[in-house]
Amino acid sequence: MLGLAKGLKYTLKNFTKEIVTYDYPEKSVPLPDRFRGIQKFYPERCIVCNQCANICPTQCIHLTGKKDPDPSKKGKVIESYNINFELCILCDFCTEVCPTEAVVMTNNFENSAYTRDDLYKDLTWLDNNNENIREENKG
Questions:
Q1: Which SS3 state, helix, strand or coil, does residue 83 take?
Q2: Which pLDDT tens digit goes with each residue over 3-25?
Q3: DSSP-based three-state secondary structure for 128
Q4: How far apart are CA 80 and CA 34, in angstroms?
Q5: What residues form DSSP beta bridges with 82?
Q6: Strand, helix or coil at 116?
Q7: Residue 88, pLDDT score
Q8: What's the CATH fold of domain 36-128?
Q9: Is the pTM above the cut of 0.85?
Q10: How crowded is the C-beta side of 27, counted as CA atoms within 13 Å?
């Protein structure tokens, strides 16, 4: 009988506590301020400096550029930009080192894949990844 009373006391005490579960698909999960999701890439900002590929600890970023076809402009334009998310550890180094902020982190984390080939993202996919772009130091 004492065990039943202890169990009932515990149940009643926890019955009034705040609910900690979320109705996930309908209600978004609150994310921490420094959450690092999948990157977004702005090809028009990229100057093909290769700093993002050079600093990447897993070497999952590969980009190529070509000389700007406009003879009045110096520099390069981006030709291809690929990230292998099978290797990417979302360390945020690529966004920190980019001088033109062509690579930014988003709060997007819902891109599950069922094959390894689906984890290899290209320039067009990263350019269209515009969900919940994190705005830091804007204020």
A1: strand
A2: 899 989 998 888 888 877 888 77
A3: helix
A4: 29
A5: 62
A6: helix
A7: 92
A8: Alpha-Beta Plaits (3.30.70)
A9: no
A10: 4
Instruction: Report the distance separating Cα 71 and Cα 11, nearest Å.
Output: 76
- Per-residue b or e along 43-71, where b marks 16 or more CB atoms closer than 10 Å to that residue's CB: beebebbebbbeebeeebbebebeeeeee
Q: Cα separation of 90 and 134, whole Å?
A: 14
Specify the residue for token string 């994310």: 31
| Coil/strand/helix, residue 26 | coil
Backbone angles phi, psi at 11, to 5 degrees: -65, -45
The domains of the chain are located at 36-128
Cβ of 80: how many Cβ atoms within 10 Å? 12
Is beta strand 61-67 parallel, antiparallel or unpaired with respect to 39-41? Answer: unpaired
Taking the alpha carbons of 112, 113, 116, 122 in that order, is the dihedral positive or negative?
Answer: negative
Report how far Cα 88 is from the mean position of its chain's Cα atoms: 10
In sequence order, which residues have a C-beta less than 8 Å from that of residue 127 and are 6 or more positions away?
40, 41, 42, 43
Contact 84, 60 (CB under 8 A): yes
